[in-house]
Amino acid sequence: MRHKNSVLHGLLQHLPWGTFDRLVEEHGGDKGMRTLSMRTQFTALAYGQLSGASSLREIEGALQSHEARLYHLNARPIKRSTLADANASRPVAVFAGLFAKLLGQAHRGLRRALAETVYLIDSTCLRLNGLSVDWASFSAGVCGAKAHVVLDADAGVPVYMAVTAAKVNDITAAKAMPIEAGATYVFDLGYYDYGWWARLDGAGCRIVTRLKSNTPLEIAEEIPVPGDGAILSDRIGYLPARQANSRKNPYCDPVREVRVTIETGKELRLVTNDLDASAEDIAALYKRRWEIELYFRWVKQNLKIKKFLGASENAVRIQIAVALIVYLLLKLAHKEQQAVTTLLAFTRLVKANLMQLKRIDRLLSNEPSEIENSSQMVFECL
């Protein structure tokens, strides 16, 4: 009988396992470990993400029940306590490096051929329990973390991710992000820092964000706008020359303010260093910022990122990294098949058939599984 692999095996085939093994060797991930390899650890956590397991004990029991199908995954059943220790101590750099490598694969296969890249920057808060108080205390009795993400809007995949305690300001995390020269960056008021804007401008990046309602603008030029649209005004000017405590503003170049009204009737003051594009294009770019909110919602609803399987900073970072890796794997696998049109429907089918012996590109087919075939052969013999 021809062997069939599980759907989980088909999904994990998109991983650069050679890179993973090199990262494990480089960071000593398996040093001193006799029972649980990092490959098995990753497989267990990926299974937990896709199955929606709510605890390490649930992952332990599920993998034990599927022990026969773990062989071709190069994994084995795990003990809950062993997995907990691994999540608390194994190097996060292995998972971060794997995420970065997989991003390259995702971009080659998913990014549309556009002259410019649009990056959306934002963060999402993640509620943690009181056991994380030693590193993620936010206020009395409340603990939380933040996932800071740069999303490639055209490919629909993150290009950067960092995890901090929730009390870390968004702009503090943004200053540590790599800058891609020439790209377009769209972000909201959480990244209101003239010095950081100047860095982006100096790298040849286009920025689109909002001005605070009380920020004055020294007007140098008024650009005519239609009187019957959402664009209220279009002006070129200069930001305040001085900041608080009489500090000189590092952003001295002219900027452009586009005032728009949105569907709710609220008025927004958009600001950009692009002095040439139409006001409608600038407004459309800022509107795309909503796509990163949809991305956060999708990940939280479809992957295990709202309830954490460990309390330590290391465990939380690993679980978030694995969740984003699984998201990229789903994107890559979805692209290679034609039967299921939407990523959400494809993800639901993967979850429903996770350990079934079925090709991942035939999730909608009615071909019998290996077990069903065996049962039919026994019945015919009788």
Jot down its keywords.
elongated, disordered C terminus, ten-stranded mixed beta sheet, 382 residues, 18% strand, alpha+beta
Average the pLDDT over all residues and give the rounded result. 87
Q: Would you tell me the structural class of the helices and strands?
A: alpha+beta
The helix/strand order is HHHHHHEHEEEHEHEEEEEHHHHH
Q: How far is it from the N-terminal to the C-terminal residue, by CA?
A: 19 Å
Q: Uncertain regions: pLDDT < 50 for 5+ in a row?
A: 109-115, 370-382
Number of DSSP helices? 14
What's the helical proportion of residues? 40-55%
Q: What proportion strand?
A: 15-25%
How would you concisely characterize the structure shown here?
The chain is α+β, with helices and mostly antiparallel strands and 382 residues long.
Structural description of this entry:
It is a single chain. The protein has helices spanning 7-12, 17-26, 38-51, 56-65, 80-89, 92-110, 133-136, 170-174, 194-202, 279-287, 290-302, 313-335, 343-352, 370-381, and strands at residues 118-128, 137-139, 142-152, 157-165, 184-186, 206-210, 218-223, 231-238, 255-261, 267-272. The protein contains 14 helices and ten strands. Strands 1, 2, 3, 4, 5, 6, 7, 8, 9 and 10 form a ten-stranded mixed beta sheet that branches. The chain has 382 residues and is α+β, with helices and mostly antiparallel strands. Helices cover 40% and strands 18% of the residues. Residues 109-115 and 370-382 have low confidence and may be disordered. Helix 3 (38-51) crosses helix 4 (56-65), helix 3 crosses helix 12 (313-335) and helix 5 packs across helix 12 (313-335). Among the domains are: 7-94 and 308-381, no CATH class; 204-276, no CATH class.
